[in-house]
Structures are given as C-alpha cells and as structure tokens.
Amino acid sequence: MPKLSPAVFLPLWDRALDPDIEIGIAVKFTGIERGNFLSNYIYKARDTAPDPSIYSGLIVFQPGGDHTDELWICKREVELGSDA
Q1: Are 38 and 62 in contact (CB under 8 A)?
Q2: Does residue 32 form part of some domain?
C-alpha cells in the first residue's frame, strides 16, 4: 500500500479555520501513534499549503484525560459572547 501524502489532511486545517467553527476541531484516530500522526501528517499537511501562513492563527495540541486518541486544532484567540 502506498504511503499517504500529508496533503490529504490539509482539509482539517481548513475546517478548523472556518469562521463557523467557534473554537476548533477534534480529530479522533486509530491505528497510528498520536505523536507520529502529528509530526508526519498534520504539520506536513500545513506545510504543503500554497500559503501556510494562513494557518498561523491555529494551534495543534494533544489533550490528555479521556481524549488521548484525539488531536485538536484550535484557534489561538477566541472571543466568547457575554453568555459564555
């Protein structure tokens, strides 16, 4: 089986950047170690973008607790409404 191109994961960055997404997205995965997924696919996907700087307002992190099978791509700054 050929190795996946990291570019196939670029839509995850685009989805997290979407203005309709308030804070960010969680990516749940199986079959690969989270650290490998992060370094081999997520960051390299961003680097394949025509202009990777458009994603500078996003951060990627690995949550703990019950979410060790997830990776989150979230906005660096979020303004919450007064009812938050």
Answers
A1: yes
A2: yes
Q: How many domains does the chain have?
A: 1
Q: How many CA atoms lie within 13 A of 69 on its CB side?
A: 6
67-82 pLDDT, tens digit per residue, is 888 899 999 988 777 7
Cβ atoms within 10 Å of 11's Cβ, excluding its own: 10
Q: Does residue 1 lie within any of the structural domains?
A: no
Do the domain assignments include residue 35?
yes
Q: What is the extent of the structural domain holding 11?
A: 6-75
Rounded-to-integer distance, Cα 81 and Cα 29, Å: 31
For 17-70, write each residue's pLDDT tens digit: 999 999 999 998 887 777 777 777 889 999 999 999 999 999 999 888 888 888
